[in-house]
Amino acid sequence: MSQYQGKPEKKWYAIYTKSRTEKKVASDLEASGIEIYLPLLKILRQWSDRKKWVEVPLFSCYLFVHISERDYPEVLKTNGVVRFITFRNKRIPIPDQQIEAVRAYLDEDDPVKLNETNFQPGDFVEVIRGQMLGLTGTLVQVKGKQRVLVEIAGIGQKLIINISKSVLKLQNGS
Questions:
Q1: Confidence class of residue 164 from pLDDT cuts 50, 70 and 90?
Q2: How far apart are the C-alpha atoms of 6 and 3, rounded to whole Å?
Q3: pTM higher than 0.85 for the full model?
Q4: Residue 63 burial (CB count, 10 A)
């Protein structure tokens, strides 16, 4: 007699994928009926001829699967999957609350998104999304990796705002 009554318990596990195959692996796993979670960030990428918003994995080469023990072989045989993340050669389940914390972080109205632009004090910038869309100003100070102070001049007053780099772009043809 089985120690289970009903469905086997599903848990979250992290899997390691081949480089730059996270989205394809996620799609293939979903097609085979496996529940996955691939946290994605929207970032502005710059090429020599254009800029474009793209979605990139929050964790490079990783995604999460919600499976029971019987699903392990199906996951491992999926093209692009390298291995389960283990500790002392044992697959370690990830608590539901940690997965939910990542989801909540990415669902925030303005999560900190990576912006690879190297802003400098004195740069003229424009707000490209959010409540201050369209405002322009002069960058006064870089505050950490993803926040800056911008001086907005208008109506005879100067306003200094603390804003995420993710909502800014350089002006003057950049």
A1: confident
A2: 10
A3: no
A4: 24
